[in-house]
Amino acid sequence: MAEILRALRAAVRFLKNQDWPAVWPNLIATVIGGLILMMLQGCFG
User: Fold this and answer.
1) In angstroms, what is the C-alpha Rg of the chain?
2) pLDDT-based confidence at 18, cuts 50/70/90?
3) Is the full-model pTM beyond 0.70?
């Protein structure tokens, strides 16, 4: 769980530094990646 929170914090820091029109594809990819990671942790954790 701690690494998920750390990843979220890093993502927020990353997003604050971005120009928003370029961010949306990255944001969507990050969300999908996070969901996949959570599913994998649920299966194997």
Assistant:
1) 12
2) low
3) no
Buried b (16+ CB within 10 A) or exposed e, 23-43: eeeeeeebeeeeeeeeeeeee
Give me 29's structure tokens: 């990819």
Give pLDDT tens digits for 20-32: 677 788 889 999 9
- With a CB cutoff of 8 Å and minimum separation 6, the contacts of 26 are 14, 18
Determine the Cα–Cα distance for residues 45 and 12; give it in Å rounded to an integer.
Answer: 26
